[in-house]
Amino acid sequence: MKSRIITIAGSLGSGKSSTAKRVAAELGYRHFSSGDLFRQIAKERGVTVEKINQKAELEHEIDLATDERLRSMANEEGLVIDSRLAFHWMPNSFKVFLSLPPETAAERIFNHIQKEGRESQNGDSVESVLQATLARRESEIKRYANLYQIDVNDLSPFDLVIDTKTNNLDQVVALVLEEFKKR
């Protein structure tokens, strides 16, 4: 039986948090962001999100604590989670993956930093954000393969994959809601 949990994973900068917040609001569900939790950990340690990712390659307790928090939510109902690995810890959830090329992601992240700021993350150019994004992605690929034998490039576990370069936020939210309600 499928649960009333939606897990949203995806490429860096693909709109996971924005999508998850909107979907949760539309459904009257609670929203949780493991990215926000990770940024909070970075802030508490006085480092950038890129640095905390590098530290997590050696300090496994960083990922283990985050992932334990996700596992503890597996039996909740009415929850939308944006997280790289929640789909793995919640196999009965409705699993969504948002894809976006790294170059487009860097532009979006840079614009977000310029307009609103981004806790524990900075960038003085699109190119610097792109390099940081690529480094962070490499770090995550290594960590998740080493810790959990998860290939984050394998999209087969997902119920729905959406390209957020060709779909705006309203379209993405509508697609998620439509497919979730079908099941």
Brief digest:
This protein is 56% helix and 13% strand. α1 (16-27) packs across α8 (169-182), α3 (49-58) packs parallel to α7 and α6 (102-116) crosses α7 (126-148).
- Can you tell me the residue ranges where pLDDT is under 50 for at least 5 consecutive residues? none
Into which percentage range does the β-strand content fall? Answer: 5-15%
What structural category arises from helix and sheet content? alpha/beta
- CATH topology name, in short, is Rossmann fold
- How far from one another are the termini? 10 Å
Order of helices and strands: EHEHHHEHEHHEH
Task: Give a verbal description of the structure.
The protein has 183 residues and is α/β, with parallel strands linked by helices. It has one domain: P-loop containing nucleotide triphosphate hydrolases (Rossmann fold, 3-Layer(aba) Sandwich). The chain contains 8 helices and 5 strands, in the order βαβαααβαβααβα. It has helices spanning 16-27, 34-45, 49-58, 61-72, 86-89, 102-116, 126-148, 169-182, and strands spanning 5-10, 30-33, 79-82, 94-99, 160-163. The chain has a 5-stranded parallel beta sheet with strand order 2-3-1-4-5. α6 packs across α7. The longest helix has 23 residues, at 126-148. The protein starts with a strand and ends with a helix.
Entry keywords:
globular; 183 residues; 8 helices; Rossmann fold; single chain; alpha/beta; five-stranded parallel beta sheet
